[in-house]
Design brief:
elongated; transcription regulation; mainly alpha; 0% strand; 209 residues; disordered N terminus; Arc Repressor Mutant, subunit A; transcription; 2 domains
Length: 209
């Protein structure tokens, strides 16, 4: 859910094997941005990473294996959503991270999402990555409940999807120009569905143009 998803923030323990993995996965993401899925191959990754082709093939086997490992490595980071002190603030902060990771056509996140449509293995790994990210984000709703902002039952996953989905729809699916205010408004709209009333704790109406 952030640009550490899935390009940065990889957990990289010490040792030669970990360094090799880091070099290879960095090569995968940079090649995707530069050349797209069609430019990704074992040979291209070996050349860019400086890791012998036989090593790349032995460990990852094919492009699908490389992409799946990018998502797997990203899922091992320690990212958590920001705690701003309010449900609206937390959702806005989350959406701002999503927006920054998607706004540029050359973003690694967009390139990886596009690649997942070309590889079943990558698609499966991406689904697991999103499940993990949304599970981590459920703490946003838990915090709001502890603060007394949410009185009734709220489906955390549905709320988080409602907040973030408009960004993915506009920037990735529709390819429309990015607008920073969209990230904030989508977060506010989603928060309204969970807060007791419009104008409730943490809610601030968007100024009328």
């Amino acid at each position: 859910m952030s640009d550490s998803a899935p390009a940065t923030g990889l957990r990289r323990p010490g040792g030669r094997t970990a360094r090799t993995r880091a070099l290879v996965l960095d090569a995968v993401t940079s090649l995707l941005v530069d050349a797209g899925y069609d430019g990704l191959s074992i040979d291209a990754v070996a050349e860019r990473s400086g890791v012998h082709r036989a090593t790349v093939y032995r460990r990852w086997r094919d492009v699908g294996g490389l992409l799946a490992d990018v998502f797997d490595a990203a899922a091992g980071d320690e990212w958590v959503p920001a705690d701003t002190g309010s449900l609206v603030g937390d959702l806005i902060a989350l959406n701002q991270e999503v927006f920054e990771s998607l706004r540029d056509e050359s973003s690694v996140t967009r390139a990886l999402i596009a690649a997942s449509f070309r590889s079943a293995q990558a698609a499966a790994a991406l689904r697991e990555f999103w499940r993990d990210r949304y599970r981590r984000c459920e703490v946003v709703v838990s915090r709001a409940r502890r603060r007394g902002e949410i009185a009734g039952e709220v489906d955390a996953h549905r709320l988080l999807v409602a907040a973030t989905a408009p960004l993915y729809h506009r920037l990735v699916l529709m390819g429309e120009p990015p607008q920073a205010e969209m990230a904030e408004q989508a977060a506010r709209d989603a928060a309204c569905s969970a807060l007791p009333v419009v104008g409730g704790p943490g809610y601030q109406a968007r100024p009328t143009e």
